[in-house]
TrEMBL record:
It is found in: Cell envelope. Residues 130-157 form a coiled coil. The lineage of its organism: Bacteria, Pseudomonadati, Bacteroidota, Cytophagia, Cytophagales. This is Peroxiredoxin. Residues 325-470 form the Thioredoxin domain. It holds the Pfam family DUF4369. It comes from the Bacteria. One of its GO terms (cellular component) is cell envelope. SUPFAM superfamilies: Thioredoxin-like. PROSITE patterns: THIOREDOXIN_2. GO terms for biological process: cytochrome complex assembly. Keywords: Coiled coil, Cytochrome c-type biogenesis, Disulfide bond, Redox-active center, Signal. Residues 1-21 form the signal peptide.
Amino acid sequence: MIKRALLMLVVMVVSFQSAMAQHEEHYKISIKIENFADSVLYLGYHKWDKQYLLDTIQHTSPSKAMVFEGERKLPNGIYFIYSPSHYVEFVLGNEKREFAFETDTTSIQGNLKVTGSKENEMFISYQRFIGEKTKEVQALNQELKTLEGDENAQKEVKDKIEVLNGMVAEKQDELLENHSDMVVSKLIAGSNRPKIPENIEDRKAKFEYYKTHFFDGVDLSDSTLLYSPILKPRLDEYVQKLTMQVPDSVTKAISFILDQAIANDEMFRYLLVTYTQEYERTPMMGMEKVFIDLSERYYLEGKAYWADEEVLKKVAERVDQMKPNMIGEIAPELHLLDSSLTEPIFLENITSKYVVLYFYDPDCGHCKKETPKLLEEYHEHLREKDVEVLAVTTVTDMDKWKEYIKKLDLDWINAADPYINSNFRYEYDIRSTPMKYVLDKDRKIVGRRIGIEQIKDLVDFLDKKDAELN
């Protein structure tokens, strides 16, 4: 069920304190490993898609158990004991955090025993059961490869695999029904996916059933799954694979998750912070709107209980800054000067059907790579498609800018704001360069943070759409 992952000793950078720092509680977890030769042992835990270090002890006596002990609230979830040579996973549930493991180096997991923890007795037993059945299925799959052309023999092997899968399902059902409060059962529920009834044959109906029942049996208000490697893949599948990748649909999917998680302060807080950060920085064109929608729905409506006045003010300011330059909005007017610094340039005076707004800094490393590429695309494809490029420098050093124009022979519309009379840096959310927008014939934003290679395809799509309408 749970695969060993590469240990990542990282520092979690978030805007809130960990639940572990609150409500201290005594824990004492010991482990004795026969013939253990490593000099150090680590205690750690899973959270979301990473692993974190919790404690370290030195191994000084081969004959004694190594003990992790302290005063700290440890949330329910999956933990691990790790050394350079060995790795053991265990769980913490609703029981006293005082228990002991014993094993040896001939088979750390296979010979693992625990005293003082019913949760881990069940967890170890289940892992061992799954491990055995997995090996049997793998052996049968290998046998299948040798039986090509022999349908009867293949059927016999496939039937055996079905029996093994049935045994696993039966074991899981027994745990879910009789031990639903145990961590192992919550992990099973979090890992399992909906089984589509055989009487549903239509492909679309199958998809709808799968999506509708995707969270059956999964309690998103229980933070146990947050402290495991199981939650993120499940939520990613729902948001990224089962949901159409347009802002409104993604916002609806994430809101569905958050509305279930809101009953658990830590779960809700972690997920909201994670999703707003992800979509504020998303590389997917237009998907920043998800950040705006989530911020308005949860932060600005007072549901983010941890956010003080200063945080809410910053969120509101960020939303106000991003809203005017989202896809579908009319591009804010620009009041700039040409390279002679005498002639005004207004967006409204550009007569081309399409406009690419290109904000750049001549000294920016990325800009030095992007500008020549955009110029080449302008000459080879865009200009003939009635696309003009309005290239706006973000610097006020006009001599350097003019030298750059001359050096690259930039023959599109070059513009600057040397006296900072325009508010384009704010209105177009220029937090880094280069930054590109594509405007249609109505000067509506149809592309944002778009790749150079995508501009021609977007223009072709818009032209085709216009032709169909006319």
